[in-house]
Structures are given as structure tokens and as C-alpha cells.
Write a structure and sequence with these properties.
This is Signal recognition particle protein. It catalyses: GTP + H2O = GDP + phosphate + H(+). Part of the signal recognition particle protein translocation system, which is composed of SRP and FtsY. The chain is α/β, with parallel strands linked by helices. It contains eleven helices and eight strands. An eight-stranded mixed sheet has the order 3-2-4-1-5-6-7-8, with helices on both faces. Helix 9 (about 225-240) links the parallel strand 5 and strand 6. About 45% of the residues are buried. Bound molecules: guanosine-5'-diphosphate. Guanosine-5'-diphosphate binds near residues 107, 113, 114, 274 and 275.
Length: about 300
């Protein structure tokens, strides 16, 4: 569906034959191709503009490397810049000095938040970290049932107080229970709405104030593309996130949301969801994502 950036750049660089250096005059068409490739990968427009400006500056300032064609050098600059923006290396989940580590999951409904909660628990178990899942979405009984079912499936306890309790209180008691039981990490699943909604934000802010989590992970559906940018901005401004989980990367999206999320929040993407099954969670690696975004 998408041409690789290298192929796309070929035409742009044809004019360069006989020239051995990146220059202001010859770089414009190549930058346009980068811009197009990123927009097709669903990176947010403003993020693309900032990114391209940065690449231009780096490319013009780059030293000529003998034996390396300027087009190859240019592609490497683009790739390296993508990796740099996305944070260079994988950043693991925080672990509190004294247990329990408290993780608050945030995001819109349908993004894969509840699934990611269970996936994370399974991932931590492989590191011998015990978990307690806390169900605070009292607005949708199905959401609590879903977490209970997932908990059973992976053999992890779920704390819930039904649908009549106050979500902030459920979170508080869930953390107390984890502390009492000597659990390593408590993961709080919260209510999502179809769209950003003031009540949802208020509730999340209150839960955060009350439990003082070590991690606030925003769950972002990679398929939402451009919208990931405004979603990230809203959640980060309002709640303050410490990282993100990008879900549904098993689809055919190029994953441009990864670049938007990182550039806008400055916080790392820690994991990616690559399927509906509880095992389908992987650590996020910036270099792999850079290659994917470039197509
Ligand atoms: P929530 O409303 O945010 O809690 O979302 P759910 O966890 O209920 O997930 C919504 C839908 O997305 C479900 O059908 C999940 O099976 C599916 N889902 C979640 N994560 C992934 C993923 O990484 N890949 C795919 N293909 N589907 C996913």
C-alpha cells in the first residue's frame, strides 16, 4: 500500500546525480517526500512540520561522508531523527521502591484499555511481579465483568465493589488491599468514554490525586491516527501522563500515532498491543517503530 521512503526519494534524488552534497537547493523535494510519507503514516500535521524542520536543519548541517551517497545519508538522518524523537530506547514500567507500584490506566472507551490492563499483568508476572487489578468503571457493568473474566483467564485477582461504589473509593481501597496482601503492582482500570468528557477527566484527576500513582499510562488506539495527537494533549495537560501504550498495531496502520504521542507529551511509549489475546503485548522499541513509520 505504501512505497518505502527510499523508493519515494529515488526520484527526488535523481536530480542529484553528479552532486555529492546535501544542499538547501536540492533537499526540498526530498523533504516534501518525507512530509508526505509521515502524513500517510497518520502523523499529526503539526508534529510533521516540526519534524521536517528538524530534519532539514540536521541534513544541511551534516558533514559529507565520503563513499556515502547523499540520498543514503539523508535517509539515515530521517531514521535517526525518528528514533531520537521516539526516545532512543525502550523505557520499562516503573517499579516503586516500596510495593505496591501503582499504575493508573487512562484512555477512551474501545481503545483496548481493559485488555491492556490484563496484558500488563501477564507481562509483569513473567518478571515475577504479582499484580492486583482494580475495576473502577462503574458506569458499564460489562467493563467490570470483562476485567473479572480476564483476571480469571490469567489467574490474577481483581478488586471490585460493584457498580454502586464511588470509583475514587474503589481505587483507594484497591491500593490498600494490594498493600495489605503484599502485591507488587496494582493496575487500576478506569472508565473510558467514547469522547473526551469533563466528568471523566475530573474523575481521573481525583483518582490520581487520591492514589498518587507511579505511572499514568495513556492507552492510545494506533488506528485513530491523527486524533491521537489531540487526545494525548488533552490527557497530558489535564492529568499528566508518564507513558503510553499503543494498541492495535497488528492492524495495517503505519503507527504514526507513536511519533505524535511522544512528541506532544514528551513521555515514552512503553508497550504496544499487537492483538486481542492477553499475550499480545510487546515492549516498545523506537527503532522498529521508525522503520515501520517510514514504510
Ligand atoms: P476499552 O473499552 O478501552 O477497555 O477496550 P477493550 O479492552 O474492551 O478493547 C476493545 C476492543 O479492542 C476489544 O474487542 C479488544 O479485543 C480489542 N483490542 C484491544 N487491544 C487490541 C490490540 O492490540 N489489537 C487488536 N486487534 N484488538 C485489540
Amino acid at each position: 500500500m505504501f512505497e518505502a521512503l527510499a523508493d519515494r526519494l529515488e526520484g527526488a534524488w535523481k536530480k542529484l546525480r553528479g552532486q555529492d552534497k546535501i544542499s538547501e537547493a536540492n533537499i526540498q523535494e526530498a523533504l516534501r517526500e518525507v512530509r508526505r510519507a509521515l502524513l500517510e503514516a497518520d502523523v499529526n500535521l503539526q508534529v510533521v512540520k516540526d519534524f521536517v524542520a528538524e530534519v532539514q536543519e540536521k541534513a544541511l548541517g551534516a558533514e559529507v561522508i565520503s563513499g556515502v551517497r547523499p540520498d543514503q545519508q539523508f535517509i539515515k538522518i530521517v531514521h535517526d531523527q525518528l528514533v531520537e524523537v521516539m526516545g532512543e530506547t525502550n523505557v520499562p514500567l516503573a517499579e516503586a521502591e516500596s510495593a505496591p507500584t501503582i499504575v493508573l490506566m487512562a484512555g477512551l472507551q474501545g481503545t483496548g484499555k481493559t485488555t491492556a490492563t490484563a496484558k500488563l499483568a501477564l507481562h509483569l508476572r513473567k518478571q515475577n511481579r504479582s499484580t492486583l487489578l482494580v475495576a473502577t468503571d462503574v458506569y458499564r457493568p460489562a467493563a467490570i465483568d470483562q476485567l473479572i473474566t480476564l483476571g480469571k483467564q490469567i489467574n490474577v485477582p481483581v478488586f471490585e465493589l460493584g457498580t454502586d461504589a464511588n470509583p475514587v473509593e474503589i481505587a483507594r481501597q484497591g491500593v490498600a488491599k494490594a498493600r495489605e496482601d503484599g502485591i507488587n503492582t496494582v493496575i487500576i482500570d478506569t472508565a473510558g468514554r467514547l469522547q473526551i468528557d469533563e466528568d471523566m477527566m475530573d474523575e481521573l484527576a481525583q483518582i490520581k490525586d487520591t492514589v498518587q500513582p507511579h505511572e499514568v499510562l495513556l492507552v492510545v488506539d494506533a488506528m485513530t491516527g491523527q486524533e491521537a495527537a489531540s487526545l494525548t494533549r488533552t490527557f497530558h495537560d489535564r492529568i499528566g501522563i508518564t507513558g503510553a501504550i499503543l494498541t492495535k498495531l497488528d492492524g495495517d496502520t503505519r503507527g504514526g500515532a507513536a511519533l505524535s504521542v511522544r512528541q506532544i507529551s514528551g513521555q515514552p511509549i512503553k508497550f504496544v498491543g499487537v492483538g486481542e489475546k492477553v499475550e499480545a503485548l510487546q515492549p516498545f522499541y523506537p527503532d522498529r517503530m521508525a522503520s515501520r513509520i517510514l514504510g
